[in-house]
Structures are given as C-alpha cells and as structure tokens.
Amino acid sequence: MNDYTCTHCGTVGLAEGFIEDAGEHSRGYARWIEGAMERGLFGGAKRIGRTRRQIVAYRCPKCGHLELFVADEV
Q1: Tens digits of per-residue pLDDT, 34-57?
Q2: CA distance 65 to 70
Q3: In sequence order, what DSSP letters do the residues of 42-58 get, joined into one string?
Q4: Element (H, E) at 32
Q5: What is the pTM of this model?
Q6: What's the average model confidence in pLDDT over 20-30?
Q7: N or C: which end of the chain has fewer CB within 10 A?
Q8: Nearest to residue 65, comparing CAs of 28, 17, 2, 21?
Q9: Is the dihedral of CA 38, 34, 27, 19 positive or negative?
Q10: Spatial CA neighbour of 9 closest among 57, 55, 59
Q11: With contact defined as beta carbons under 8 Å apart, do 45 and 31 qualify?
Q12: Is 53 in contact with 7 (CB distance < 8 Å)?
C-alpha cells in the first residue's frame, strides 16, 4: 500500500490502477494530451506534435473516489 490520501474522505492508502480505453485502434489505456482540444479535418482530435502521457488512477478503498495523475510520456 502507499501513503496517498483520498482528497474526498481522508482515507490513507489508495489502490493503484488505470483508466482503460477499449475503443477502436486503442492502446488499452487512456492518455492525457497537452493543450486545449482542437478538431481535425475529419472531426477527430488533433494530436500530432503534442505531449502524451499515460493516466494513472488511484481508488479510495473506503469511498470509491478516484484520484487521477499523469505519468510517463507514451
């Protein structure tokens, strides 16, 4: 267990996990992309040249609140 504290209820010791992206052509995990979202020519989000980082999630075992953080670049 870690010593992260839930910002909702104050419980110490959050469970580590991740947010899954199961969409078409996904890598299996969600990513945080730097900057405001802009739409491309076909309606999708523009991502080229932007920093991408994996999202790490911690769940409180008492109240279920999720704390999200960005981790390493992907």
Answers
A1: 888 888 888 878 878 888 898 999
A2: 17
A3: TSSBP-TT--EEEEEEE
A4: strand 31-33
A5: 0.71
A6: 81
A7: N
A8: 17
A9: negative
A10: 59
A11: no
A12: no
Distance CA 70, CA 49 (A): 18
User: Around Cβ 11, how many Cβ atoms within 10 Å?
Assistant: 14
Backbone angles phi, psi at 43, to 5 degrees: 95, -10
Residue type, 52: R
Structure tokens at 4: 């992260």
- For 22-60, letters b (16+ CB in 10 Å) and e give eeeeeeeebbbeeeeeeeeeeeeeeeeeeeeebbbbbeb
Count of alpha carbons within 13 angstroms of residue 67, beta-carbon side: 19
